[in-house]
Design a protein that fits this description.
homodimer; mainly alpha; Multidrug-efflux Transporter Regulator, Chain: A, Domain 2; 3-stranded antiparallel beta sheet; flat; DNA-binding
Chain lengths: 139, 139
DNA sequence: AATCAAGTTTACGTTAACGTAAACATTCTT
DNA sequence: AAGAATGTTTACGTTAACGTAAACTTGATT
């Protein structure tokens, strides 16, 4: 079925369109720790989730180290001393602020793309009067 | 006043909290081309805007090459042949899709941070019954 | 038995984005 | 005039995130 429980390294590589080299590298950096059957790696559903989170982090421009920090937040968010917990809340807030900055950045970049697209379409309409240009709908 | 029109390299370095090395490197990569007074670089307001755009791109995880591609979109969005213009519209759409993917990624990561924060706060409340924990407002 | 596919370790190579240092020019200040 | 501050070019060094290749193991297949 669709709910598999164990994956080989090339299973994951295929699914996420990355190389096995990358997956082993992530393990080397401490972001994954699959079981071993003999010398062969066996990945659980949890490992798969971790990998998905890594790739999501990368799409947001996070370094592997930062991804690891997020995992720490996730993993130890229900244990540790009071001081540790308070420290984690602080870091969660920091990460959230970074994400909010990214939201602002995306909004501004979208506006710039809007502008560029408008100028592009206009230039096209000037070149090709037969309205072949890419305008959404009605005039 | 606040509306300066020329900047030295260290002006910009200070303002954006980067090194002069970085600024020269961006120029080396073709992302900036300030005037020269003798051998000294002089940056205009436009140059300053470009620099701001570079840093925004970097915060979104874009490479300098990708930033340069965005500048091309911006700069040539009102010129070029029909084919060129159509190609640019395509690439604008691609960039927009990447941004939308990032929006989705941010939303999911925010949810995970919410969860981690909730668990953290809960663990804290269990440790410190005197409600010193970080809960927003009323019980 | 031999070959083949998939996995493994080890290690050197590569690219992007700067850091760092040396050696020099220019301008301002003392 | 002699520093000191700010700028410049040139060039080698560094880190992250893999790519690539070699040499080997293991299980399945012919």
């Amino acid at each position: 079925m669709n709910t598999q429980t164990r994956y080989s390294i090339s299973d994951l590589a295929r699914e996420f369109d990355i190389t096995t080299r990358s997956i082993r590298f992530y393990e080397d950096q401490g972001l994954l720790s699959p079981e071993r059957r003999g010398q062969t790696r066996i990945y659980s559903r949890q490992d798969r989730v971790r990998l998905k989170l890594i790739l999501r982090g990368k799409r947001l421009g996070f370094s592997l180290t930062e991804c690891g920090e997020l995992f720490e937040l996730w993993d130890h968010s229900n244990s540790g001393s009071e001081l540790q917990l308070r420290l984690m809340l602080t870091r969660i807030t920091e990460k959230r602020q970074a994400l909010e900055q990214q939201l602002r950045d995306i909004a501004m970049m979208q506006q710039e793309l809007d502008g560029a697209e408008a100028r592009c379409s206009e230039a096209l309409n000037a070149l090709v009067p037969t309205d072949t240009a890419a305008k959404p709908a009605q005039e």
